[in-house]
Amino acid sequence: KRAEEAEKRSKEVTADLERETTKNKELRKQIIAGVVKLSEIEKVRLAILNEISEKLRSEGIKVEISDNSTVLRIPEDTLAFETAKWSIPTKSDQSLGAIGEAVHDAITKDDRLAFLDTIFIEGHTDSVPLQREMGNWGLSTYRAISVWQHWGDNSGRGNLLAALKN
User: Fold this and answer.
1) 3-state class of 65 per DSSP?
2) What is the pTM of this model?
3) CA 48, 51, 55 angle in degrees (round to 5)?
4) What are the residues whose beta carbons fall under 8 Å from the beta carbon of 86, sequence distance 6 or more?
5) Are 92 and 79 in contact (CB under 8 A)?
6) How much is the pLDDT for 135?
7) CA dist., res. 35 & res. 30, Å (int)
8) How far from chain centre, in Å, is Cα 100?
C-alpha cells in the first residue's frame, strides 16, 4: 500500500512540475515578447527624435537631444521667454511653428502613434525666484501651456497635434 501511495504521490508531483514548467514557458514567452516590444518602441522613439532634430537643423532651427536620448529640448537661443513672462516672443513664432510641424510629421509617420502614449511639454525658468503668487513652478507651467496653445492656435501642421489621440 505504501508503494502505491508513493507512486500516486510521485505522479501528482510530476504532474505539478509539468504544469509549472508549462506556466514558466508561457511566462518566458510573454517576457520575451515584452522585451521585443520595448525594443521596437525605443527604436521608434529614437527615430522620431533624430528626424525632428535633423529636419529642424536643416531649416536652421537649433534643438538639442538630451544625453540619454529621451528628450528633445528647445534651447534658449531658439525660444527665449522674457523674464517673468509666458507669452511666446514674436521672434520665436516661426521657429516654434516649425518645431510643432516637425513633431507632428515625425510622430504621424509610419503608424508611429501606436508606439506613443504621451508627449510631454515642459516649461522652465531661470534660477531667479519669481515673487508673484505663482512662483517659478507656476511660470514654467504657463510657459509649457503657451507652447501647446501656440501650436493649437496657429496654422500649419503643428496645430494638428491637439487632434492626435491614441
Assistant:
1) strand
2) 0.76
3) 140
4) 123, 139, 142, 143, 145, 146
5) yes
6) 82
7) 9
8) 15
